[in-house]
């Protein structure tokens, strides 16, 4: 399988090169030339299969035959080994036809672990086969950074630099990054928002001399391997609830659009998904875009669900690429308008195509708190504030179509946001003991101003790949 850039001005690559590249050199995002098809009989055959086996089966068609089936199975099994629940991504029912898919049983208590634990092993394998080093730079609104650090800490061939918005993540999220003592881990507290950090990240990738000098690699959800890995739990959960003989809808707390895009990819692969429901917080770019057709970022509003405090949803570009007929010129024009005038209008046909498959709901702070309290009262189940937005959006869908089950993705453990939980239910959730113990160490991080040149210099001074 080959991959092309959504902006059409970068060379097509195989899976290994897409894995290392992250962002295409033309600023676009890599996407496959075609989505592999999973037949209904093969979907049904996933019933009762261990998660690692299901992952190996579903991911293999995307990998261009770069590694053998046995090695891929070993990688998926190793990636699952640190999860605290044997099902890896179990389902819980909290109301009639309303389910929560628990994606927070990994080592950093967030859904990012499901992809990142595998991504780390895949990338390390490629670097070893090619005898290379790499410099990973990531931007995080809270959870991606910790998941990347956990996946790559201690690896000899990789240095990791994570940018997070200073003062805009929870204490638990921050300490999961800053208390890691491995020498190859570097944490940067950026004076700005997540969108500022993501903008610097994209500028670094577009700086060809810098990119080559440090052998830059990316692990944000712009990396196609992350999307592929996240399709797996859509399949495994759907099979438990009756797929391929039954349709389901999914409600997804959304920031950078990567997690819900994985659901879209699973649907393109043949999974019988009815609606994909985008749940946003007060940073409602996507809800506004689907309602009005105008994609126009505004200032970021800090909320109790900080991983969703994003106004530029990068993976939305991949969806736009598909609904515009995979026309790279159209994508270049839309994003040139975003750069030049701060927004763009989604053409009528593509907008109708998006609306035919996606719903979107914005959930404000009061409604988020109310949903945490309601679910605890009615189902004795504690939602984190991100998941609460998804459950609220799922309830809205069930009010329209009560017959089709809706699965809300639980993207983080509630103990990562104890203040928000205490406001809602009057009690503070506890971290798993092994996680809490690891957060007691001294913090190590560097505060940098919101300046791409300053960040680039900091990375160049410390990246071992630059000295090879």
Descriptive overview:
With 468 residues, the protein is an alpha/beta fold. It has a domain at 91-109 and 225-425: Rossmann fold (3-Layer(aba) Sandwich). It contains 20 helices and 15 strands. The chain has helices at residues 15-21, 40-44, 51-59, 69-80, 112-130, 144-152, 171-178, 194-206, 208-214, 224-240, 258-269, 285-292, 316-323, 328-341, 348-355, 365-379, 385-400, 418-425, 433-438, 452-462, and strands at residues 3-5, 30-32, 91-95, 98-102, 134-139, 158-165, 185-190, 216-217, 248-253, 273-280, 294-295, 344-345, 358-362, 406-410, 446-448. The strands form four sheets. The protein has a six-stranded mixed sheet, sandwiched between helices. A hairpin with a 2-residue loop joins strand 3 and strand 4 (98-102). The radius of gyration is 20 Å and the shape is globular. The two termini are 31 Å apart. The model has no long low-confidence stretch (mean pLDDT 95).
């Amino acid at each position: 399988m080959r991959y092309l850039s959504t902006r059409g001005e970068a060379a097509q690559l195989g899976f290994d090169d897409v894995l290392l590249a992250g962002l295409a050199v033309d600023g676009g995002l890599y996407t496959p030339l075609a989505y592999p098809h999973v037949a209904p009989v093969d979907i049904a055959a996933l019933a009762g299969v261990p998660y690692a086996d299901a992952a190996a089966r579903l991911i293999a068609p995307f990998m261009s035959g770069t590694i053998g089936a046995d090695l891929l199975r070993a990688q998926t099994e190793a990636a699952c080994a640190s999860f605290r629940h044997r099902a890896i991504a179990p389902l819980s029912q909290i109301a009639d036809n309303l389910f929560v898919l628990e994606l927070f049983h990994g080592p950093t208590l967030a859904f990012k672990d499901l992809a990142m634990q595998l991504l780390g092993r895949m990338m390390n394998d490629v670097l070893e086969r090619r005898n290379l080093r790499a410099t990973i730079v990531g931007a995080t609104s809270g959870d991606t950074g910790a998941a990347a650090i956990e996946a790559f800490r201690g690896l000899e061939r990789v240095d990791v630099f994570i940018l997070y918005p200073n003062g805009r993540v929870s204490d638990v999220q921050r300490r999961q990054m800053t208390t890691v003592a491995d020498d190859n881990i570097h944490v940067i507290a950026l004076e700005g928002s997540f969108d500022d950090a993501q903008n610097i990240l994209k500028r670094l990738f577009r700086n060809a001399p810098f990119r080559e000098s440090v052998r830059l690699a990316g692990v944000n959800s712009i990396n196609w391997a992350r999307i592929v890995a996240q399709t797996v739990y859509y399949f495994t959960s759907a099979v438990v609830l009756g797929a391929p003989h039954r349709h389901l809808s999914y409600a997804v707390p959304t920031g950078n659009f990567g997690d819900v895009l994985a659901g879209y990819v699973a649907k393109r692969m043949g999974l019988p998904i009815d609606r994909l429901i985008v749940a946003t917080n007060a940073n409602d770019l996507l809800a506004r875009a689907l309602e009005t057709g105008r994609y126009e970022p505004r200032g970021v509003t800090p909320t109790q669900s900080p991983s969703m405090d994003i106004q530029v949803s990068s993976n939305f570009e991949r969806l736009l690429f598909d609904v515009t007929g995979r026309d790279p010129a159209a994508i270049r024009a839309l994003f040139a308008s975003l750069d030049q005038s701060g927004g763009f209008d989604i053409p009528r046909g593509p907008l109708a195509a998006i609306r035919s498959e996606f719903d979107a709901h914005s959930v404000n702070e009061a409604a988020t708190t109310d949903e945490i309290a309601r679910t605890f009262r009615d189902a004795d189940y504690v939602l984190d504030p991100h998941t609460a937005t998804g459950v609220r959006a799922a309830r809205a869908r069930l009010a329209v179509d009560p017959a089709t089950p809706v699965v809300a993705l639980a993207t983080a453990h509630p103990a990562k946001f104890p203040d928000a939980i205490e406001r809602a239910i009057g009690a503070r959730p506890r971290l798993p003991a092994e996680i809490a113990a690891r957060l007691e160490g001294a913090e190590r991080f560097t505060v940098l101003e919101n300046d791409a040149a300053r960040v680039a210099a900091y990375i160049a001074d410390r990246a071992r790949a630059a000295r090879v």
